Amino acid sequence: MSVTDRLAEIVGQAYVSTDPDVLAGRSVDHTGRYRGRAGALVRPGSADEVAAVLGVCREAGAYVTVQGGRTSLVAGTVPEHDDVLLSTERLREIGDVDAAERRISVGAGVTLAQVQHAATEAGLVFGVDLAARDTATVGGMASTNAGGLRTVRYGNMGEQVIGLDVALPDGSVVHRHSRVRMDNTGYDLASLFVGAEGTLGVITALDLRLHPTPSHRATAVCGFADLDALVAAGRLFRDLDGIAALELIDARASMLTAEHAGVPAPVEGAWQLLVELAGDTDQTERLADAFEGVELCGEPAVGVDVGAQQRLWQVREAVAEVLGVYGPPLKFDVSLPLSAIPRFADDAAALVAEHAADAIPVLFGHIGEGNLHLNLVRCALDGDREHALYAAMMDLIAGHGGNVSSEHGVGTRKRDYVGMSRTDADIAAMRTVKAAFDPTGFLNPAVLFGA
């Protein structure tokens, strides 16, 4: 019996496909820039089915690539070995919100937007927010330890995960749940799988922490003539009590959003900073006081009511909509010390001009954590030329004391550069953990280490 026949016995024939068109559509990354190849698609409907699929694939020597919402920006869901694509999209159960304990249990295939909606209906808030909220699944977000727009207040995805179910490569299932807030019994297995990018097991369900909804918000976008002044302001704002968001946007991004999304910047300046404070009392005066002594380029645009706040947030969120207007952008997700950001921005622009003169570097991101997204719009490089630019940019990031991977993970695009941010001993220890869970290396083989 073939592998696909055995998979069909587990999940049902309707949930296994070998159709070339289906597989081609599932073997391209979110940007459309990178393509792979797959031999079959399987969509299990439960943790036990996921485990059984892994058992069959392991026994047959078939590689498996795990897919959720397929919003990875480092080609983390692109197969390289005629893999079996294991989709978590049918794991969509949403439990009732426990308002007293502020938690919810959901399947790995539930989207971020669905979790946010459930939390809002209960008068609570989920701590992670992304532009891809309608597509990104919480299983994938946990696998990459995603950050996003609210990280400065609530932390990354790992801070929201308080329990999970994981199907292991050997075909067993780990259920790690606890109803108590403090559970220090044995190894912290949940944290081991968060950020592992699916290399150690397949997350099938999660218990997620929810938070009280602040009753007051105050939002502002302010302009700066130079990046040094913005970074100084960012260092001040990130330490404020009640900081809820701190987002950098450069003028090139603003021009793109104005031209292609009809969302112009509300302030002047080569750089813009979106600041939001949240709390149980009116934050407007505190926000105004925080601007005292900051080197602004003109007056900030302030939103106190919900409508005005949403209009200001459009400036930041529209960036994601327009990045592909000139074709698939070349993306770099980096983490840098705040003090290094201005010099990195200059050096990165010079490096891009050297390798791709027609490309437009667009810089934006979460300045509170030094987590920035550098996107090269109108970058037509491919093959060796793209690889040369990518390698040079990774070297530049490391040279500025940064980390080559931040909230997007390593995926396949950055696996050759892990050694720039981790020592040989670190990498050896990670490989030891990988070998303990997956000795044959069949699960997500292209991610993090490569086959």
TrEMBL record:
All copies of domain FAD-binding PCMH-type, residue ranges: 34-213
GO MF entry, a single one: oxidoreductase activity
InterPro entries listed in its UniProt record: FAD-bd_oxidored_4_C (IPR004113), FAD-bd_PCMH (IPR016166), FAD-bd_PCMH-like_sf (IPR036318), FAD-bd_PCMH_sub1 (IPR016167), FAD-bd_PCMH_sub2 (IPR016169), FAD-linked_Oxase-like_C (IPR016164), FAD-oxidored/transferase_4 (IPR051264), Oxid_FAD_bind_N (IPR006094)
Domain of life: Bacteria
GO aspect biological process, one term: respiratory electron transport chain
Cofactor: FAD
UniProt keyword terms in alphabetical order: FAD, Flavoprotein, Oxidoreductase
Gene3D superfamilies in UniProt: 3.30.465.10, 3.30.70.2190, 3.30.70.2740, Uridine Diphospho-n-acetylenolpyruvylglucosamine Reductase, domain 2 (3.30.43.10), Vanillyl-alcohol Oxidase, Chain A, domain 4 (1.10.45.10)
PROSITE patterns reported for this sequence: FAD_PCMH
Keyword Oxidoreductase: yes
Keyword hit for Flavoprotein: yes
Entry similarity comment: Belongs to the FAD-binding oxidoreductase/transferase type 4 family.
Full protein name: FAD/FMN-containing dehydrogenase
Species, as recorded: Mycolicibacterium rutilum
